[in-house]
């Protein structure tokens, strides 16, 4: 008798067998895809390696390179570091020229920085003092070709220094502009209000302006009632060229006046202690500072405190610095003698 359900040799595959075949096919598919992915990455890495080697060959000009990719990467990284080092060296040299480091270069970029000067002299003047300026021009301040010769042969530039009127553009400003068109011997501080009580700010702006526009060993402030022996000034300054940060003048220390009725009244007298005496500072008639100190003023001009008098203010700026104070007798203008730099009019 034949079994109605048929022979076992013709039985259909079970469900578990079918699922196993599906799993096998899926694994095969994933394996194939993984193989293709790995092959692609290897191909990409090989392409990158070839590119790196070709880049190294191009940079070194050595043709075929036998070094490893790791060495190639190290060389490229070293070259990037070398570029950074060159940039830092450039910044260091710039710092030297600006007075932050000694032995700064004599050549700088800028309109007036082609040649290292000995000194830039600023004669502080005011409105209504043209008579004083004309007397100085006749006595010791050269003009025209003689001024150019002084700059080229002795490295000294001289300019009158003045600010602007409180009523900008009024007759006082126009008179100075007209005078300057004729003489070309002014530094006009357009951002400074010209007033007797603003002399300290004027000194700060002058030094900042001068060091920004001329590369000199020294910057000198002079009043417009002082007569200068240019040769003696040059010799006195040259004798201090071996000092990097130097403050030169007729040094003094006097009483701090605390009463408003007194001529030299100091509104902030209480800052100078119970003794009410000023610290050592150069007389305001004439004093000189070296390039690093002028550049210090340029950088810090917005935070440097000013007092009632420009000579006291200048002295205060250098108290906390490593500065050589030079009490130069030739800068004392009370009397004229052989070798003196100055004399009061």
UniProtKB/TrEMBL annotation:
<comment type="pathway">
    <text>Protein modification; protein glycosylation.</text>
</comment>
<keyword id="KW-0328">Glycosyltransferase</keyword>
<keyword id="KW-0464">Manganese</keyword>
<keyword id="KW-0808">Transferase</keyword>
<dbReference type="InterPro" id="IPR002659">
    <property type="entry name" value="Glyco_trans_31"/>
</dbReference>
<protein>
    <recommendedName>
        <fullName>Hexosyltransferase</fullName>
        <ecNumber>2.4.1.-</ecNumber>
    </recommendedName>
</protein>
<keyword id="KW-0735">Signal-anchor</keyword>
<dbReference type="GO" id="GO:0000139">
    <property type="term" value="C:Golgi membrane"/>
</dbReference>
<feature type="transmembrane region" description="Helical">
    <location>
        <begin position="21"/>
        <end position="43"/>
    </location>
</feature>
<dbReference type="GO" id="GO:0008378">
    <property type="term" value="F:galactosyltransferase activity"/>
</dbReference>
<keyword id="KW-0812">Transmembrane</keyword>
<keyword id="KW-1133">Transmembrane helix</keyword>
<keyword id="KW-0333">Golgi apparatus</keyword>
<keyword id="KW-0472">Membrane</keyword>
<comment type="similarity">
    <text>Belongs to the glycosyltransferase 31 family.</text>
</comment>
<dbReference type="Pfam" id="PF01762">
    <property type="entry name" value="Galactosyl_T"/>
</dbReference>
């Amino acid at each position: 008798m034949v079994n109605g359900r048929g022979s076992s040799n013709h039985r259909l595959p079970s469900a578990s067998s079918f699922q196993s075949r599906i799993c096998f096919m899926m694994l095969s598919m994933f394996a194939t895809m993984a193989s293709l992915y790995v092959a692609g990455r290897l191909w990409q890495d090989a392409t990158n390696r070839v590119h790196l080697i070709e880049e190294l060959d191009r940079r070194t000009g050595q043709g075929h390179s036998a070094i490893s990719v790791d060495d190639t990467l190290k060389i490229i990284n070293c070259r990037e570091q070398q570029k950074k080092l060159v940039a830092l060296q450039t910044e260091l040299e710039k710092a030297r020229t600006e007075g932050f480091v000694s032995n700064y270069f004599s050549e700088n970029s800028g309109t007036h920085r082609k040649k290292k000067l000995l000194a830039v002299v600023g004669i502080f003047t005011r409105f209504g003092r043209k008579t004083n300026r004309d007397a100085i021009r006749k006595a010791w301040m050269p003009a025209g070709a003689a001024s150019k010769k002084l700059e080229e042969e002795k490295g000294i530039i001289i300019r009158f220094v003045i600010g602007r009127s409180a009523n900008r553009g009024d007759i006082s400003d126009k008179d100075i502009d007209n005078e300057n068109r004729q003489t070309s011997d002014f530094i006009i501080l357009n951002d400074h209000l010209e007033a007797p009580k603003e002399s300290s700010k004027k000194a700060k702006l002058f030094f900042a302006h001068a060091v920004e526009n001329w590369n000199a060993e020294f910057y000198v402030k002079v009043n417009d009632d002082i007569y200068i022996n240019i040769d003696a000034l040059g010799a006195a300054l040259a004798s201090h060229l071996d000092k990097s940060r130097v403050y030169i003048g007729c040094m003094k220390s006097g009483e701090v006046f605390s009463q408003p009725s007194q001529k030299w009244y100091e509104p902030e007298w209480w800052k100078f202690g119970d003794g009410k005496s000023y610290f050592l500072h150069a007389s305001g008639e004439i004093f000189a500072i070296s390039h690093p100190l002028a550049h210090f003023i340029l950088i810090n001009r917005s935070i440097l405190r000013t007092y009632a008098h420009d000579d006291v203010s200048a002295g205060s700026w250098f108290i906390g610095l490593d500065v050589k104070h030079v009490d130069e007798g030739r800068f004392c203008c009370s009397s004229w003698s052989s070798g003196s730099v100055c004399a009061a009019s």
